[in-house]
Amino acid sequence: MTTWLNMSLQDGASPIMEQLVFFHDHVLMIMLMITTTVSYMMITLIRNKQTSRFMLEGQMIETTWTIAPAIILVFIAMPSLRLLYLMDEVHNPSLTLKAVGHQWYWSYEYSDFTKLEFDSYMIPQEEQQESTFRLLDTDNRIVLPMNSPIRMIVTAADVLHSWTIPSLGVKTDATPGRLNQTSFSISRPGILYGQCSEICGANHSFMPITIESVPAKHFINWVSKMSE
């Protein structure tokens, strides 16, 4: 989760998010290179007092500053397209989870199990404990196995919502009457937090998402307990 004075992205909890962070740093370095070069050239031109009647045109430099941006765009586009295809691809999922957005809470259904569904509300401030986070913790957490491909199906029952977990690199719109699909794999155990990222009414700020990532053995025990 984010912390105070955090100037960067959250630590990636999935392979896709780690690749997104790498891509962010890659593009940032290219931007830094462009900014440094253009700033140096502008300062040099401003401070240069020499004039020459032979510098009215320059075929070579015009060709260079036309081809160079195209090459730079290729270096940005190739990893970007690769990430887009990786994020869109749904491999053989070991688990399917359906999220339904309501005003203003989430409902979850584990499609691979019978009668395993629940609602998830934000814990009110007066009921919070010292170990919980304000506006982020819920009364019923999503429990998912780590290192397993998860298929996520997102929809809404009333208005537009958005199911978002920043540390997983997942953000999927919840649209009434439509099923949107995404996939992810959690690479480490822990508790991951997110919130609704689509303005959906007065209590839009009070729709947190809490995922508890556990080993597969603990997940099986949790399913057995919830199915009793």
UniProtKB/TrEMBL annotation:
What name goes with this protein? Cytochrome c oxidase subunit 2
Q: How does it sit in the membrane?
A: Multi-pass membrane protein
Q: Which family does it belong to?
A: Belongs to the cytochrome c oxidase subunit 2 family.
Start and end residues of each Cytochrome oxidase subunit II transmembrane region profile domain: 1-91
Recorded hits in InterPro entries, A to Z, give:
CcO_II, CcO_II-like_C, CcO_II_C, Copper_CuA, Cupredoxin, Cyt_c_oxidase_su2, Cyt_c_oxidase_su2_TM_dom, Cyt_c_oxidase_su2_TM_sf
Q: Does the keyword Transport apply?
A: yes
Q: How does it assemble?
A: Component of the cytochrome c oxidase (complex IV, CIV), a multisubunit enzyme composed of a catalytic core of 3 subunits and several supernumerary subunits. The complex exists as a monomer or a dimer and forms supercomplexes (SCs) in the inner mitochondrial membrane with ubiquinol-cytochrome c oxidoreductase (cytochrome b-c1 complex, complex III, CIII).
